[in-house]
């Protein structure tokens, strides 16, 4: 979860345009979800055209898709957050970067849309990785006797990845790895899995 205090480094223009964008996109996501539900469509993911405004965000989403299951799960939260920032998005109230309550609300709306798109959305000037794909994997088990990885992928060309393994006990010879990736980034050489020392119920994590 992002720290809303990171938004204190974002300027008024970026915040204003960013809030307007998130407000509009949340509304569009809810509209598409409602229409899909009414039509009885079974598809849970739909490709969408989304261009992050460069004066508000750092980076871009890559081949964005709308995850309707996530939108449905967050329906009420999205509605409430849109209502909370409506006056700012519509230019009725002026965005004040020192308004902590507004920053928290904007961050919550941003996080909800990150879940809906399955990608990171980062404001311009924010001390955070740029917008883009985010791969996340998590495994919770009692015992590890062989090999287990929270996230295993052959290649991650761009974006971010995080893996987590939680185990109560790792037997002799067992391996619990948070993140196991062959190649990270363009032209990167193949690397061995990243491991964190852990045992007896401690959480094993690996992030990149």
Strand content: 25-35%
Report on the biggest sheet: 4 strands, mixed
How are strands sequenced across the largest beta sheet? Answer: 4-6-8-10
Kindly state the number of beta strands. 10
Structural class designation: alpha/beta
Name some characteristics of this structure.
208 residues, alpha/beta, four-stranded mixed β-sheet, 4 helices, 10 strands, 32% helix, globular, disordered C terminus
Explain the overall architecture.
This protein folds into two domains: 4-130, no CATH class; 133-207, no CATH class. Helices cover 32% and strands 29% of the residues. The chain is built from four helices and ten strands; from the N terminus they run αβββαααβββββββ. The strands form four sheets. Strands 4-6-8-10 form a four-stranded mixed sheet, with helices on one face. A two-stranded antiparallel sheet has the order 1-3. A two-stranded antiparallel sheet has the order 2-5. Helix 1 packs across helix 3 and helix 3 packs across helix 4. The protein is globular. The two termini are 15 Å apart. Residues 155-160 and 184-208 have low confidence and may be disordered.
């Amino acid at each position: 979860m992002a720290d809303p205090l990171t938004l204190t480094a974002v300027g008024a223009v970026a915040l204003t345009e960013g809030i307007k964008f998130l407000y509009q996109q949340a509304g569009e996501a809810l509209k598409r979800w409602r229409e899909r539900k009414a039509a009885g469509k079974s598809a849970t993911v739909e490709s969408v055209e989304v261009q992050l405004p460069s004066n508000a965000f750092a980076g871009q989403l890559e081949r964005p898709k709308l995850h309707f299951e996530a939108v449905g799960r967050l329906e009420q939260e999205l509605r409430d957050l849109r209502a909370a920032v409506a006056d700012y998005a519509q230019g009725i109230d002026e965005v004040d970067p020192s308004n902590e309550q507004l920053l928290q609300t904007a961050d919550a709306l941003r996080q909800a849309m990150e879940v809906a798109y399955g990608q990171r959305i980062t404001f311009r000037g924010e001390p955070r990785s740029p917008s883009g794909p985010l791969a996340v994997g998590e495994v919770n088990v009692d015992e590890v006797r062989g090999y287990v990885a929270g996230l295993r992928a052959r290649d991650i060309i761009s974006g971010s990845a995080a893996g987590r393994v939680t185990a109560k006990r790792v037997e002799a010879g067992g391996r619990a790895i948070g993140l196991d990736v062959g190649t990270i980034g363009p032209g990167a050489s193949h690397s061995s899995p990243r491991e964190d020392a852990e045992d007896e119920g401690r959480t094993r994590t690996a992030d990149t």
